Amino acid sequence: MWFYGHGFGLRAWRSHGVKAFLLVGALAGCTAMVSAQQPVAAVPVVQAPPLVADGEFAAAGFAPGEYLVRAGQSIGPWNVDLGNVGLHVGQVAVPGPGMNVVDLNGNRGGSLFQTLQLQRGTTYTLRFLLTGNWRTNPTTPRRVAVLFGLQRQVFEVQPPADWSFENPQWQVIETTFTPSANAVGLRFSSENPGVPDGAMITDVEVLPPPVAPGPLDAEPIPLPPDLDDYVMDRQKAVLLGKALFWDMQVGSDGRTACATCHWHAGADIRTKHTLNPGAPGSQFGHQTDLGAALTAKALAGFRGVNAQMRPEDYPFHRFANPLIPGDEPGFVNRGNPVIFDTLEVHGSAGVKKALFNGIVPGSAVDASLPAADDLFSIDGANVRQVTGRNAPTSINAVFFDRTFWDGRANNYFNGVNPFGDLDPDARVLKADASGRMQRVRILLRNASLASQAVGPVNSSVEMSWIAREFPDVARKLFSLRPLALQQVDSTD
Q: How far is 323 from 375, CA to CA, in rounded Å?
């Protein structure tokens, strides 16, 4: 028989058991994920330069405003060779920071280009955002010719009813080209000659054909390069992490483990009692000004607890054409509107809502006080809460740069919470030469699994009664036999 905490030490970071539990437990979980492979130092990722230089027109060096750029002048690496174009800096709503917009009609039609270095005979994808400037001639379609070497295509946009600089209604244009030479010109030219205010473009990119990745077992495992500064024995850390991942005694109810939501191919396949009505306007849902109204609508249409999902229930969010990207109302109009939305999420069932009231040494169930749950209850009796997102797979998660659907589990582990270097106040205890504990800041690179591991354990929806902390978890587990309530294969 062995017990949690026995034989699992930290090096100079070792503190009293409950103090060290958070750091070693998270790192153990991270290490356990890669126990089947040979750990190696992380390999730096070399990011290939974009094939189009400054496709966002961000490096133009202009202050906010509107500029007329004439033939013979340039916007960064883009050369204007015919007529003139307009450059809008900070005037037109764009999807990302630092983007500017080029109007291919300054006060008349214009053209701009740059030369790309590509591979002859290879098919590339050209993608850009397109709309029009309808300050003048508000009923006239805007047209742009795209020349990729000797290949030419023309695209047209119709004037939308509610167009404005604040609501430009960008359309995503995507097409393919195959250059006949290694050096090839990419040109955007107005097809509305002699008038001001034409087609507007931004976010231009050329993408090479996708390359199928090789097998992951041939890839180096991106562990923290300084992991041995914190973990004395990797093999024992693997054992601890595996036990923590599978042991349902970790949950406040003594019935909920990390593996509860990650046991089937690393994910959650439960189909009953899996609905959450909080996607629109919720903490992790669509962050819009309509959040309160959408939440009220979602609650009104909520199918309730214990609903059994069926294949025909999916998808919850449907577009007219399910095979292509859909519209983003008020921002990008792709001609593919939303036709149905249940305003629900297929989440993962966690624990009942309750207030933490201390541990009971030797018991897998934490003491609790009642807490009313108006949403996840039946006739006043609380049932398991359901998360606002479905559990992502844990398979191959060691290769994730960030973890969780929104990426909030940072690549850097700060020893305290999922937020890595975004939390400047996170501190752990380190023993100095005299044995006294000092609060210090740490950042372990390539450790998003450790950042993730410190989130769910004390989540009051996923695994914990409200207000439980990691020292409470440590004290509880020190008094328990690992996996005592579960069957374990004798060869494991």
A: 35
Q: Strand pairing partners for 129?
A: 172, 202
Cα angle 16, 22, 23; round to 5: 90
The CATH number of residue 163's host domain is 2.60.120.260
> What residues make up the domain containing 203?
65-207
Q: Considering the domain boundaries, does residue 107 fall inside one?
A: yes
> 99 lies in a domain?
yes
Per-residue CA distances from 399 to 42, 238, 447 (Å): 10, 17, 10
- Report how many domains make up the chain: 1
pTM listed for this prediction: 0.64
State how far the Cα of 401 lies from the Cα of 391, in Å rounded to an integer.
17
Contact 454, 337 (CB under 8 A): no
* One pLDDT digit (tens) per residue for the chain, 492 residues: 344 543 333 443 433 344 445 555 666 655 555 544 444 333 444 456 789 999 999 876 789 999 999 999 999 999 999 999 999 999 999 888 889 999 999 999 999 999 999 999 999 999 999 999 999 999 999 999 999 988 999 999 999 988 999 999 999 999 999 999 999 999 999 999 999 999 999 999 999 998 887 888 888 888 898 899 999 999 999 999 999 999 999 999 999 999 999 999 999 999 999 999 876 544 444 445 556 777 788 888 899 999 999 999 999 989 999 999 888 877 788 899 989 888 889 999 999 999 999 999 999 999 999 999 999 999 999 999 999 889 999 999 999 999 998 899 999 999 999 999 999 899 999 999 999 999 999 999 999 999 999 999 999 999 999 999 999 999 999 999 999 999 999 888
Instruction: Decide: 340 and 381 in contact? Cβ < 8 Å.
Output: no
Q: Is the dihedral of CA 325, 326, 331, 335 positive or negative?
A: positive
Q: Is residue 323 in a domain?
A: no
Considering the domain boundaries, does residue 393 fall inside one?
A: no
